[in-house]
Amino acid sequence: MLRPLARGYRRATPLVVFAVLAAGIALSAWLYLRGFRRDLRAQVARELSSIADFKVKQLVAWREGQQHEWAEFRSNAFVNAALRRAVAGRDPALRRELAQALRSKLERLNGSAALLLDRRGAVVAAVPSGAVPSARELEVLARALRAPGALLDEGEPGDDLVVAISVDARDPERGGLLVRYDTTRALSDMVLYWPHPASTAEPVLVRRDGDFVMRVTNPLHTTAARLPLSLDIPTTRVVRGMSGIT
């Protein structure tokens, strides 16, 4: 009676050992996979955080750079004298020279328009020719005339970014310079640059516009300019203040 049981036990023992080993291997594999995914997630989080910090520093440097560039333009002794003479009179040759100088500066800084205005807000020189200031830009210039340096104004969603500065810091009522930047054109290349090879990852700059999220820079993977804030997607989550990997 015991002999058949013993033979059955000996036959079952390898199966039990195999089952235990298989379960151990499966558990080890699961633990390894869970640890690998956790480490990979942490690595991706560190990389994304580093890229985001880098992008923010780039944008801050760009903003400060535009103000510095136009303050330096005004402080040049030759340019400053020409600006003051131009707003005081109507010398066509001088206005053409200033327009050329403004055009060269705009091309280097990737701006879209520059206007030299007299104390009454009349256009003295403009690039491109025919450009006129908007009511909002005249208000920005009025504030800039009371500021010691260049003033940067973002406006409302969809507005151009504007830099304004007085022609003469010692006599700000002489007039001033207005410079427009199409932020989509000026910032897209800088924001889109991705330091690691990736087929789907990309940074995009967005801002809130009421109940919508509006893109500031052109994304690669969508043509949508505005998205409802009610959508539950990463773009809307970040505008609502959420952060992290989703």
Write the topology of this structure.
Blueprint: H1 2-75, H2 77-88, H3 92-109, E1 113-118, E2 123-127, H4 135-144, E3 151-153, E4 161-166, E5 175-181, H5 183-192, E6 206-209, E7 212-215, E8 226-228, H6 234-239
Antiparallel strand pairs: 1-2, 1-5, 3-4, 4-5, 6-7, 7-8
| Rg over CA atoms | 31 Å
Question: What structural class results from the helix and strand content?
Answer: alpha+beta
Q: Report the end-to-end length measured between terminal Cα atoms.
A: 64 Å
Helix content: 40-55%
Beta strand count = 8
Q: Outline the low-pLDDT stretches.
A: none
Q: Provide the residue-averaged pLDDT.
A: 84
Largest sheet: 5 strands, antiparallel
Strand content: 15-25%
What's the SSE pattern? HHHEEHEEEHEEEH
Shape annotation: elongated
Query: How are the strands of the largest sheet arranged?
Result: 2-1-5-4-3
SS summary, helix count? 6
Overview features:
53% helix; 6 helices; 5-stranded antiparallel beta sheet; alpha+beta; 8 strands; 246 residues
Provide an overview of this structure.
The strands form two sheets. The protein has a five-stranded antiparallel β-sheet with strand order 2-1-5-4-3, with helices on both faces. Strands 6-7-8 form a three-stranded antiparallel β-sheet. The chain has helices at 2-75, 77-88, 92-109, 135-144, 183-192, 234-239, and strands at residues 113-118, 123-127, 151-153, 161-166, 175-181, 206-209, 212-215, 226-228. It is α+β, with helices and mostly antiparallel strands and 246 residues long. β6 (206-209) and β7 form a beta hairpin.
